[in-house]
Write a structure and sequence with these properties.
Blueprint: H1 17-31, H2 38-45, H3 49-56, H4 59-83, H5 88-103, H6 113-117, H7 124-150, H8 160-179, H9 184-197, E1 204-206, E2 212-214
Antiparallel strand pairs: 1-2
Helix pairs in contact: 1-2, 1-4, 4-5, 4-7, 5-8, 5-9, 7-8, 8-9
């Protein structure tokens, strides 16, 4: 006896929504928000114009959704890079290397959607999202520094907030330099050196030959 299968109502969707969203990320990433047209998205995502509007909404709505999906994925990978290594120095180097590797990943546009594209979008919601994402990154690095204090890797008076901001600034700088064409090999080497810099004790600076030395106090 053959049972009649229940047919779903409506026309079946002819594309994978998550895959199409990932393709939208690449389109925005490579062309920037202002440079992207609906035709670019239709071609790049492989969906029809009616389906794009029905599933994703207009260009702004799609960009916000793409940005959030990208940030979630990138944040999870950055957290893994930062929190997986045991030693603090290795954690920082891993975090900075990840920024370089992500910005120079084969098959993707160079740079970063959050760092190189989203800040240029003149939209209050986008700006707020970028600010929140940046603050989340700093907070994550701060937690790692505090774990380092608890483990005795750095002193209790280590300037956690300042150095955490410096680490995320370095990550953004490496990402932007990748977009400008700096070779990946160069950036990876500099990521390693930057991990040493942010761990320098208070009052130290680098001399001309790269060696750390105690800074002189300036008397008033």
């Amino acid at each position: 006896m053959v049972q009649n299968a229940t047919r779903p109502r409506g026309r079946p969707r002819g594309f994978d929504e998550l895959e199409a969203l990932e393709k939208a990320i690449q389109v925005f990433w490579s062309k920037g928000y202002d440079g992207v047209t609906i035709d670019d998205l239709v071609d790049g995502m492989g969906v029809g114009r009616p389906s794009l509007y029905a599933v994703f909404g207009d260009k702004r709505t799609l960009f916000l959704r793409a940005l959030k999906a990208y940030a979630e994925k990138k944040g999870a990978r950055a957290a893994k890079a930062l929190l997986s290594p045991q030693a603090l120095r290795a954690s920082l180097a891993s975090f900075l290397r990840h920024a370089v590797e992500s910005a120079t990943e084969e098959g993707s546009a160079v740079g970063c959607l959050l760092v190189c594209v989203a800040p240029l979008v003149d939209d209050a919601e986008v700006r707020q999202f970028v600010q929140n994402a940046a603050a989340g990154g700093v907070a994550m690095v701060e937690r790692r520094f505090r774990d380092g204090i608890s483990a005795g890797e750095i002193p209790s008076d280590f300037p956690v907030a300042v150095r955490a901001s410096q680490v995320t600034d370095l990550a953004r700088g490496l990402t932007m330099r990748a977009q400008m064409g700096t070779p990946r090999k160069t950036l990876l080497r500099e990521a390693e050196e930057a991990a040493d810099l942010v761990l320098l004790p208070r009052g130290t600076r680098h001399g001309p030959n790269g060696s750390a030395r105690k800074a002189r106090r300036v008397r008033g």
